[in-house]
Amino acid sequence: MITPKRDPIGIDDLYLAEMAENKSVLSRPDADGEGDHLAAATLDLRRRLCADHLIPVLGGRPVRDLGEADVGALKLRFRSTSVGYLSVVLRALRGVLAAAERRGVLSRVSIRLPRAAPSSAPRAYDGPAFERLVAAAREIGPQHVGAILLCGEAGLRRGEVLGLQVADVAGVAGVLRVERERVWSGGAEIVKAPKSNRARLVPLSPRTTAALRELAVGREPDAFLFRTVRDPEAPATEATIRALVAAVQRRAGLPIKGPHALRHTAASGMLAAGVDVRAVQSILGHSRLDTTATYLHADEAAIARAGQRVQEWREAGPVTSTAQPPRKAQRGRVKPRDPA
């Protein structure tokens, strides 16, 4: 084990150091690459996880004394919670211990993430289910319609929906420019460029365009488009968008999946409509194509159509050809024919 170069430090000290490393990028619009630094929402989650779980369990000891037994004790603390939440906590611990390793305070500690059983439930809504959501949103209110269509048809992230201003949508005609998002880190609001650090153009359906224009009527140009449910004068928060989407899902009688499931729905709908995957990558704002691939889903109807087409192809019988296979070229020098 590596001897620390200074006085023993704890989990909370390393957490603050890790935050300082990643938080500086939030104000830099020219940061390169998606995923090179932690997003603001991820930093805020790390802060809460460290305060609620890591420090109460591991904060009383120097980091240099931590080992795999301590990781096991943390896993035991969450034995009754979901595998997904335990994985999030362990990833937060992994990031803090990586900061310790970079500073020569601690040698590598192995942290294995638990494996969740594969789920058969699709992450995206199919076409009929999404239309049920739209119909249910119309029964509740304009903000509900706007949130469902922006996330489920245009594929915007939650922070990008929150970052829309009245001026962005007042004169929109089929194409929306997404150039900012609102996120929270350490309890503070941050307005910055989208996750890919660049603005992008997103196509809008006529009904999405109409919904956005309705939300912009009579509003100041620099006001944020979505507002809280209780205070019409206050800009919406992340909890507001989650509440809007959950209310629509309950009204439609569908599972509560959260706003990000609608982004998967948008990607699936684009591909089912024949949109090129590179175009889908640009619309979703992904820096890498393999990130877009995680959003690609085939619904049951598409799978059934694929099976039907294969069956029709087989029933048509083998295709025969009268064409002769090409002759192999002779090797070596070819003797010329006698002109006689």
Textual characterization of the structure:
The chain starts with 10 loop residues before the first helix and ends in a 25-residue tail after the last helix. The chain is built from 14 helices and four strands. The longest helix has 20 residues. The chain has a two-stranded antiparallel sheet. A two-stranded antiparallel sheet has the order 2-3. By secondary structure, it is mainly alpha-helical. Helix 5 packs across helix 10 and helix 6 packs across helix 10. 28% of the residues are buried. The N terminus is likely disordered.
Furnish the topology, listing elements before pairings.
Blueprint: H1 11-23, H2 40-58, H3 68-77, H4 83-102, H5 127-140, H6 142-152, H7 158-163, H8 166-169, E1 175-178, E2 181-185, E3 188-192, E4 200-203, H9 206-216, H10 238-252, H11 259-272, H12 277-284, H13 289-293, H14 300-315
Antiparallel strand pairs: 1-4, 2-3
Helix pairs in contact: 1-2, 1-4, 5-6, 5-10, 6-9, 6-10
